[in-house]
Amino acid sequence: MDSITQAALGAAIGGVVLGRRLGRKAVLIGAVLGTLPDLDVVIDYGDAVANVTEHRGFSHSLFVLAGLATALALLSARFAPARDISLGRWWTFFGFCLLTHPLLDSLTTYGTQLWWPLDAPPVAYPIVFIIDPLYTLPLLVGIGIALVTGNGRRGPAWGLALASTYLMFAFGAKQLVEHRIEPILADRGLAEASSLVQPTPFNTLLWRVTVVNDDEHHELLVGLLDGDTPPLVETYRRGAELTAEALASERGQRLDWFAGPFLRYEARELDGGETLVATDLRLGFPGFYPFAFPLATREGDSWQEVDVSEQLVASSRGTREALSRLAGRIMAPEPALCTSDFVAGGWVLNTSAPC
Length: 355
Fold this sequence. Notes:
It comes from Halomonas tibetensis. With 355 residues, the chain is α+β, with helices and mostly antiparallel strands.
């Protein structure tokens, strides 16, 4: 989630745990702890693929943060002026403020390396977008009340309860969407294909479904307010014929570990030469993928891995129009919103209705 949300979550938890004893201080310290894991963004690994795939790594590890919480609790119990706070209460304060950060991040599409240093892929079960005002606002209001009144517990407790209720709603919405698309995917022989269900920007009423099957990837938009209207199914090429060449590079293997099957490969003309580019299909929206990386350049009949990979600048063509049409699509399935409207025609294979 965004830094404001993480700070607000940490502040609310700090207020709930120690607000009655420390007042505003619990809220402010909790806000700092809530943003602490994201300081890894200042680390430059010297390569775009490394920067993206290492983010939410060691600093988001449950093992690392639990150890840090233990150290901070021991120090506070020994040296803090508030001598009446037990070691267990100190650990609850530090542990909950720190550990909820990666756990919340794991509820977004990007995923989080909860089990670092174990060689496990990032954990992701997306039920909220990386910025969701309906989750953040209750937290901000609650901590605002705490800071104004000096009562460090009551406002944060209400804010945390409302925000948690919203997460429960989002979880239920995802389950409903997954149930709704099951027969549609089964009819198309995609029941066993890799699929990703995630909310569209800033809401949990309209969901994007991405399904990958060999050389094809399929896109659906499913709204909670769609009623009996079936979603459009749009099919795109994925460039799977370049998979072997992509995985021959170390960066290609790293991206495959990071994004699994949700990658598109293409040969682009960049800097006067043919370049093999990998694009993460999970993040963004068809036509607006922010994470694309050159992996290799063609030299004669072979591909040579690039020395340093840079993140390619994503096209902003029609971004405002796309967001506006997405907002309209939330309330009604008609008129249809076709993701192919924003995608270069060469990638589109089929749609289930005229677009």
